Amino acid sequence: MATAHPHPLLNSAPPLNPHLIAPVAKIVPVKIGFMGEQGTGKTATAGLLAAAISKQFHGGAPVHVTDPELGWGFLDPVIFQKENIKLVQYTVPTFAAMLQDLRRAEREGASVWAVELGKIWIEIIRTLQKAKPDNWGMDLRAMWDDFVAQFLNSKLHCLVLGRIQDVIEQVLTESGSIKSIKVGEGMKAGGQKNNFGYEPHLVIRMNLEQKPRVKKGKTFEEEGRMVHRALVTKDRSWALNGKVFRWPDRDGYKPGDFKYVWQSLQPHFAAVQLTKGFAMLDATATSAILIDDDGNSEFYANRQRKESMSAEIKACLDLSFGGRGAEEVKIRLAVTDLIFGVKSKEAADALPLDQLERGLRILHAYENFPKHSMDSKEAVLSQIAEAIVEYDHGQSEQWDIPF
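-> structure tokens emitted (403 positions)
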């Protein structure tokens, strides 16, 4: 029987065994972003990191990737097949497909899910612009916030890869004119004002360098070996903030060569484990609670449920108190205030989901009264108070809410 190894993250200088499968009961998933221009090594670096995580901490569990650009296909025979790690690739370049891919990766026992965001970001913008040419920005923000929630809440290690874009802000000059200036860089996804590069816990900016070649005492610039330079622009754990790593191109790959990337980034992984913030019980854990059968997160499902409930509440109020006379409007406002504690529909829509559900059940209980007293505002409010008492005693719970 093999001797159990200590947890490799808790040693100050852990020996790296490329084939070690550590008996780790709980792993906190990492959320890492790679950004840079084309050809800077984002895909290769993310692939090496994914192989390291899979091999060392999840027994070689599969790696899933959403890659419309097909770059990961070249890594399969070079890295994953040599490490006996199954690489599952999805290639549909749509936002909806990406959400489904993440859910499927969780359901099928992946250790890592990675996504190339470039074409997907373009697709979602074009789709929304075509559907809503005058009002697409709000939907884009809501949909992207949903993905961010799924990305951060997923029980998988998640790697996102995106092209670089300048972050531009408008500033007021001394002369009083407005000038656009570059204030930084971010991942080309999520929008100028909220770049997705700020969402992962670790963000790495990739560049490509070329060493000079020296021959017979002469230096030839940009003729030597290519080097992938990685600048850590953000580390929420503070373990690697501002660090720069350089990984030279190699002629081939041997099992365990992921160590060159892993040794550099391991301090962040170790720091994340110390937070104990999100336990991954095993590589086959799913997020059925977080993501439904349509690939929507709990966040998205609750938002949809709230919208449906608000519409149902309005329909109930229209049915029972839909008159437009001055007295009828006063009754409707008083009823809304008694049930929800607010008078306007807008204020009611902003209430928490549980308060909306309580109010809807009260309205349903009121609808079931055999006779409605509409002679005065006081008579109506008296019956609404009875419906509230029914709710408080659980008698209105029998009304099933179909969403």
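The two ends are 53 Å apart (CA to CA).
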